[in-house]
């Protein structure tokens, strides 16, 4: 999956991944009103809002980016109707040739992890294997150790899937655990070492493993240090834009060839129309396209 992702980044000359993490507050009123009038104040109405919002965003941006990332919690909260929107969005993105990262942050004991691994490995039903989720990669929490990671390694190797494991996250309180010092070094460095070791089990052809890392853009020095310590680990980098980081903060996250990272922006793209007053709400998708182009230019200045 990482080789395919790198090829897409090269083709589009853009290491941007759009985070399709919508909230009701982000959805334009004309979409909200249409769905409420049709389906009432129901979870189904919200599911339809999410899907329409995502589809219009993809129509305007799919030619510019290599991948999208969907935070499943934004959909799960609405039950089956939300999950339907999640799955239909994935199908729509895949039809457009985009890679899809399911931001599911799973992490549990071995037997449960094996069930969660269906997100990228599919499931067998009476000898027939199906892929109900159709994600190319997922995010994982390493707190359970290798027991929680091992079931995902097989689909990485056999089905060319990928995993992004939390190492140094972008949220302010992440340091409460990740920055704790043990035997002279922070916990996140131990996580980095483990991810590097696990990565040796599923290497790609371009020098990067299918076992990748999440490294936040909001901790510049730590991110640059992790790039040195993890030369064969691809980074998914959240924290750009709405969380305060810009391209100058993450130039050192790329390798010397300008590769090795994909940078996520969610609110800064999908809700761009709410800040850029040049765009009326009916043109929210055009505003998102403009935001992607501006981000591409910003990142291009440091790659």
Structural class, from secondary structure content?
A: alpha/beta
CATH architecture: Alpha-Beta Barrel
Overall, the morphology is globular
Q: How many strands? A: 12
| Mean pLDDT across all amino acids | 96
Task: Please give the order of strands in the largest beta sheet.
Answer: 1-2-3-6-7-10-11-12
CATH superfamily placement: Aldolase class I
Overall helicity: 40-55%
Radius of gyration: 19 Å
Main pleated-sheet profile:
8 strands, parallel, barrel
- Show unreliable segments: none
In the CATH hierarchy, the third-tier topology is known as: TIM Barrel
CATH class categorisation: Alpha Beta
Number of helices: 14
Order of helices and strands: HEHHEHHEHHEEEHEHEEHEHEHEHH
Strand content: 15-25%
Cα distance spanning the termini: 22 Å
Q: List the domain count as a whole number.
A: 1
Task: Describe the model.
There is one protein chain. The chain is an alpha/beta fold and 303 residues long. It has one domain (2-298): Aldolase class I (TIM Barrel, Alpha-Beta Barrel). It has helices at residues 2-12, 29-39, 43-61, 73-76, 79-95, 110-116, 118-121, 150-158, 175-178, 187-199, 220-229, 247-250, 267-270, 284-300, and strands spanning 16-19, 67-71, 99-106, 123-125, 128-130, 137-140, 162-168, 181-182, 185-186, 211-215, 235-237, 261-265. The strands form three sheets. Strands 1-2-3-6-7-10-11-12 form an eight-stranded parallel β-barrel, surrounded by six helices. Helix 3 crosses helix 14. The longest helix has 19 residues, at 43-61. The mean pLDDT is 96.
């Amino acid at each position: 999956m990482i080789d395919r992702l790198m090829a897409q980044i090269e083709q589009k000359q853009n290491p941007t991944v759009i985070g399709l993490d919508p909230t009701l507050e982000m959805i334009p009123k004309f979409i909200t009103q249409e769905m409420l009038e049709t389906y009432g104040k129901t979870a189904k109405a919200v599911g339809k809002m999410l899907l329409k919002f995502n589809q219009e965003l993809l129509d305007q941006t799919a030619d510019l980016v290599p991948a999208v990332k969907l935070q499943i919690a934004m959909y799960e909260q609405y039950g089956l109707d939300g999950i339907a929107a999640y799955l239909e969005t994935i199908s729509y993105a895949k039809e457009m040739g985009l890679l899809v990262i399911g931001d599911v942050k799973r992490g549990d004991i071995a037997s449960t992890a094996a069930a969660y691994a269906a997100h990228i490995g599919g499931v067998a039903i009476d000898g027939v294997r199906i892929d109900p989720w159709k994600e190319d990669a997922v995010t994982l929490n390493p707190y359970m150790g290798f027991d929680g990671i091992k079931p995902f390694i097989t689909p990485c190797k056999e089905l060319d899937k990928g995993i992004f494991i939390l190492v140094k996250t972008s949220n302010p309180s992440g340091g409460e655990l990740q920055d704790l010092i043990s035997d002279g070094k922070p916990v996140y460095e131990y996580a980095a070492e483990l991810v590097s070791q696990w990565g040796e089990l599923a290497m790609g052809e371009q020098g990067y493993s299918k076992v990748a890392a999440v490294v936040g853009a909001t901790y510049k020095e730590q991110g640059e240090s992790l790039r040195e310590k993890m030369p064969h680990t691809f980074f998914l980098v959240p924290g750009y834009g709405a969380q305060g980081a810009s391209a100058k903060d993450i130039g050192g996250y790329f390798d010397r060839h300008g590769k090795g990272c994909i940078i996520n922006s969610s609110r800064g793209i999908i809700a761009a129309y709410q800040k850029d007053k040049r765009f009326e709400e009916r043109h929210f998708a055009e505003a998102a396209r403009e935001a992607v182009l501006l981000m591409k230019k910003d990142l291009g200045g440091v790659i």
